[in-house]
Structure formats: structure tokens, C-alpha cells
Known about the structure:
Structural class: mainly alpha
Order of helices and strands: HHHHHH
Radius of gyration: 15 Å
Number of helices: 6
Amino acid sequence: MDSTTIFLAQLLGISYGVVGLALLFNYDSFEKVIKDLFKNKGLTWLAGLLTLVAGAAMVLHHNIWEGNWVTILVTVFAWAALLKGVFYVIVPEFMEKWAKAVLKLGWLQYGSVVVIALSLCFIYAGFLV
């Protein structure tokens, strides 16, 4: 693995780990944060812009679609961040509907387990391989 893949795996692993644990232990707070995010259009736009920039930076430095599973997974998540940012900036109403559906269906709680599992994959790949 190249140094960019390792760095991004470490970054994503730590970030997703903290967010996943926060989701797991502070579910009610996260639910409120998500609802509050869409009440303030400026904050929604800023969150989208930051996600867009982070995603674009990752894609520009790591758009590698061949190699091992870690390399491809990092690229997939880089593109996912970029696309999420684009959607937040261009169609925030769609993202608000999507977020409300996720909350209504209770997927956020299950999402915490998925995010923690992803963080463990990234931490393993970034720190232990």
C-alpha cells in the first residue's frame, strides 16, 4: 500500500471510530443534531461544502481503482464523501428527506454498528497491516 492509502485508512478509521461510538452512546444527541442541521440552511450548506472539499481532496489524491481491498475501499469512501457534499450543496432538500427517513426507520442506531465495523477495518489496514 502506498503512503496516501495508509494515511487515509488511518484518518477514516479514527474518524469513523469516534463518530460510531458517539452514535452508539449519544443517539438522542445525534438525532437532535441531524434535525437541527436542516433547520439552519447556512449550516446545512457549510456542512455540505466541508464534506465536498474533504471528498474532493481525497479523490484528487487517491482515485485508485485497482490493488488490494483497502485501496479500493478508501477510493469508494472518498467518492462517497465527494458525492455527499455535492448533494448537500446542490439538493439539500433531498438530503433532508433522506435524513428524516433514516431517523424515522431507526437506521441511525444500526448505522453506528456499521460505522464502528468500518472503522475497525480501516484501523486494521492503516495501523496493523
